[in-house]
Amino acid sequence: MAKTNCTLVYEFxxxxxxxxxxxxxxxxxxxxxIYFITLVGNFGMFLLIQIDSRLHTPxxxxxxxxxxLDLCYSSVVTPKMLIDFVTESKSISLRECAAxxxxxxxxxxxxxxxxxxxxxxxxxxxxxxxLYMLIMSxxxxxxxxxxxxxxxxxxxxxHTVMTFQLTFCxxxxxxxxxxxxxxxxxSCSDTQINKMVLFIMSFVHGSLSSxxxxxxxxxIICAILKIRTVEGQRKAFSTCSTHLTAVSIFFITLFCIxxxxxxxxxxxxxxxxxxxxxxxxxxxxxxxxxxxxxxxQDCIGKVIRRKRLP
Length: 310
Description:
By secondary structure, the chain is mainly alpha-helical. The chain has helices at about 20-50, 60-85, 95-125, 130-135, 140-145, 145-165, 180-185, 190-225, 230-260, 265-290, 295-310, and strands spanning about 10-15, 90-95, 170-175. Strands 2-1-3 form a three-stranded mixed beta sheet. The chain is globular and about 65 Å long. The N and C termini lie far apart (about 70 Å).
């Protein structure tokens, strides 16, 4: 597309959700409550795992990293969104937008592969319970953090560099944060390569991590079916049901945003999906793992009882 008669843009305006000032205040209160629960839940989960020796196992090592990731990538988006609800100026500079995009792309891709690493951990725990601690040594756990970090860096660098090499002629981002498709749509440059790379990388990251998770669960199911007692099968499945719930919620919403035709739904519908995986999912994960995990419940109860003692 020709770049003539274009006014170059040096800052963006985040349109957010729109609506009346009264609605903006209500949305501010709603999302502030969600963010507060996210901070308390994830930081509390991370801290609980660090201080309670009973939770110093590979499973909770990965869970503490998941809590840290959720805390970080929610904090990349939500504070700016909350500020925009209560201020007239909803501007964000190019550098701030690039930084937000970089960190968000890093944390989202890293979480995809971290969930895959957690699936492998559950497979080892169920198929080799006697050798679990030996197989999932500290070194193995740290090695399983390499793919999330590498994928996050690759995803963040690729999309941020490619996006901010474009020339922007529009300043209004029809979104509540600098999401890649929303920013690309403002360019008067040719964005076909950007869109193709976004689709391919999203599909590859999502598919690779999903395939690894599916294969792990196929082996998990086979291992569970070999258990002779119904009670044993129930206990084995309950150890991975929380992880399966978290995976399902995260990947379904993520695929709905990035692995789809550009015309498949309206921008406002895209915002709803984005709110779910960028704001709601980080809040849900610690709730899922605490409500459905007896060990975590026992540790929380132990901490509460300590606080009540004089």
